[in-house]
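Hi V.,

Quick status before I head out on leave. The structure for the redesign project is tokenized and pasted below; the design run finished overnight.
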């Protein structure tokens, strides 16, 4: 028993990663290898995080999901595969280059028809969904984009989510920098996390998975 989370040293992190890799789909593993060769490879989520997100989507019986920040599509693929055939993921990104890789792997996985990729500023896409009467119609959202915009994305997603829906926000630890952050992206992330934990309209949880995953459940 323990009254605090046990520190995840390198030995335990390797153990967790090795277990997750055993359950990683071969196509996801290939996508991860392709992504690892890119200059921005650090933007890839952890294998164990992908497994968790897929499980969370299934536990929510989600049918309509949102994603802000697609990169090469690993997280999108994890979510789309967890959806029923009629499920849909609206995925927002600003890069045609990175999402071209994502599109190839979505096609190969047979889930391309479940993913509605929107290229352009996410705030505009999310506002468009609200303006078209889709508030309260989504089950799950994943935010993994520019940290300065996360607060606005969260506010919009909470409008779009149904009661009981969940937003998962990546990089809540910022490599540990949030502890002493005074300015920059890490300070933005810390401010958002503290704001969420003060907000009685939601239920928060901060998980030590990947670079920290902040879960926000809409009451």
């Amino acid at each position: 028993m323990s009254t605090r989370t046990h520190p995840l040293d390198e030995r335990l992190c390797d153990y967790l990663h090795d277990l997750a890799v055993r359950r990683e789909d071969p196509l996801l593993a290939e996508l991860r290898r392709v992504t690892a060769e890119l200059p921005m490879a650090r933007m890839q989520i952890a294998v164990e995080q992908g497994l968790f997100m897929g499980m969370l989507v299934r536990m929510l019986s989600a049918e309509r999901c949102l994603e802000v920040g697609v990169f090469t599509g690993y997280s999108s693929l994890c979510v789309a595969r967890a959806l029923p055939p009629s499920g849909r993921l609206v995925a927002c990104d600003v890069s045609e280059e990175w999402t071209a890789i994502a599109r190839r792997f979505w096609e190969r996985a047979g889930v391309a028809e479940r993913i509605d990729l929107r290229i352009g500023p996410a705030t505009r896409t999310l506002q468009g969904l609200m303006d078209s009467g889709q508030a309260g119609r989504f089950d799950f959202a994943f935010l993994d984009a520019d940290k300065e915009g996360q607060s606005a994305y969260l506010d919009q997603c909470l409008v779009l989510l149904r009661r009981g829906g969940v937003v998962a926000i990546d990089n809540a630890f910022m490599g540990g920098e949030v502890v002493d952050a005074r300015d920059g992206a890490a300070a933005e992330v810390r401010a958002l996390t503290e704001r969420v934990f003060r907000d009685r309209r939601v239920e928060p949880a901060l998980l030590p998975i990947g670079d920290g995953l902040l879960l926000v459940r809409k009451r």
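Above is the designed sequence. The first strand starts at residue 64 and ends at 68.

G. will cover questions while I'm gone.

Best,
W.
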